[in-house]
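DM from R.C. (forwarded with permission)

"hey, sorry to bug you on a friday — could you get me a structure for this? deadline for the figure draft is monday and I only need the backbone to look sensible"
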Amino acid sequence: MVATRAPEDACTAEPFVPDHGGLTALRRAAAGCRGCPLHRDATRTVFGAGPADARVMLVGEQPGDQEDRQGKPFVGPAGKLLDRALAEAGIDAGEAYVTNAVKHFKFTRAEPRKRRIHQAPTLREAAACGPWLAAEPAVVEPELVVVLGATAGKTLLGSSFRVTEVRGTVLEEEIHGRRERLVPTVHPSSVLRADDREAAYRGLVADLEVAARALA
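My reply, with the result:
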């Protein structure tokens, strides 16, 4: 059963989240989410993907251009880099559940028909999408959550979160009524933007190795 629909752009996804039905019901309901204004310009909702019994859940920021076009998370350049880093760290990407704090692509264009340029979601937009991010781990029940970057970290752990202070450590926190183990690290897109890309990549792999050991 799906809760009564809220008015357009009600600034929370809560009325759109079904109370049962598993990931299939969540994904179907999320496709019609109007919980914040981001749905207006995005092509589609990009919901999480992966096994319903995944041991590890990876949470990023928001879909990018390719994710918005294909309707799947982490299929663009950052996703490909993440898959490579996971493999090096000893985590099978195919056995992970991947999602984002925000389910619609936020972007700007300098001119019509120009390339869509990523814009970081606000904390208010992430909070509006929060009910989806609460529902996913409640269904999947992962043993570990890998937090990719500042937006995901602030959404899950509060506005004081600083990825540079806690990356590569195992945290235990109460989130949405569940006791979660989390390993924060940088978002793979930051590796692509880094001046020393190799050093940034090695740092990401080292953090993911901490996650792999926590799962062992």
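R.C.: lifesaver. Residues 47 and 103 are 6 Å apart (CA to CA).
me: no worries. The chain has a mean pLDDT of 93.
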